[in-house]
């Protein structure tokens, strides 16, 4: 006498969670299902350039002002500190 394997019907999950459906959805080639909801973070005023531009407010004005100061000091105010002194101090 040969025994046949007994197959039981799969019981439904109490929570409604189906791991096979999760695996099928995860393996889809669509990519990230939340990408549509995350897209606003990288468009309009939230682009990478706009976020970087706002990171250093006043840096452009400060750079121009410092360069102007350096040029004005070199042209209009001679350096008198490097006068020759006696060797005996």
UniProtKB/TrEMBL annotation:
One of its GO terms (biological process) is electron transport chain. Pfam families: NDUF_B12 (PF08122). Its main location: mitochondrion. It is found in: Mitochondrion inner membrane. The chain crosses the membrane at residues 55-77. The keyword Electron transport applies. It comes from the Eukaryota. Keywords: Electron transport, Membrane, Mitochondrion, Mitochondrion inner membrane, Respiratory chain, Transmembrane, Transmembrane helix, Transport. Coiled coil: none annotated. One of its GO terms (cellular component) is mitochondrial inner membrane. InterPro entries: NDUFB3. It is a single-pass membrane protein. Accessory subunit of the mitochondrial membrane respiratory chain NADH dehydrogenase (Complex I), that is believed not to be involved in catalysis. Complex I functions in the transfer of electrons from NADH to the respiratory chain. The immediate electron acceptor for the enzyme is believed to be ubiquinone. Belongs to the complex I NDUFB3 subunit family. This is NADH-ubiquinone oxidoreductase B12 subunit. It comes from Lentithecium fluviatile CBS 122367. The lineage of its organism: Eukaryota, Fungi, Dikarya, Ascomycota, Pezizomycotina.
């Amino acid at each position: 006498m040969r025994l046949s394997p007994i197959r039981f019907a799969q019981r439904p999950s109490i929570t409604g969670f189906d791991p096979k459906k999760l695996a099928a959805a995860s393996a889809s080639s669509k990519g990230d299902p939340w990408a549509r909801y995350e897209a606003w973070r990288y468009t309009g005023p939230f682009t990478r350039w706009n976020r970087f531009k706002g990171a250093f407010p006043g840096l452009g004005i400060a750079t121009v002002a410092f360069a102007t100061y350096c040029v004005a000091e070199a042209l209009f105010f001679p350096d008198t500190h490097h006068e020759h002194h006696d060797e005996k101090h």
